[in-house]
Design goal:
The protein is globular and about 45 Å long. The protein has 2 domains: 31 residues, no CATH class; 75 residues, no CATH class. The chain starts with 6 loop residues before the first helix and ends in a 31-residue tail after the last strand. By secondary structure, it is of the alpha+beta class. Strands 1-2 form a two-stranded parallel ribbon. The protein contains 4 helices and 2 strands.
Length: 112
Amino acid sequence: MSSLLRWDEQFGYSPWNGNLDAFNDGLSGYPFPPSNKAVLALVGFHSLVRANKNSSDVVLDLLEYHSRQFLLFSKRLIVLVQTDDNRFLPPLAGGRTPQWNREEWMGQNRGL
């Protein structure tokens, strides 16, 4: 995240230290390519959930908020969250429930 959001340039230090206010500010400068379309994949999200459930919830909420804000400027940000936890229940993000992908929608397809 620090590299993608050019943490050192924006804030004068690197890497990101978990400060959610700084993460919020950093997302506002998300580096879109000329097409104004981007996909952000959070791989291993279960690690953040285990380390700090509250912070992981806020991260998802901030990503949803900024994704929606970017639409106002004709920019599209899709966020994909990968987790090894087949029991992961995503919290509300921006008042909406994030969805599992079609292949893992049913619990039986996630080994439950």
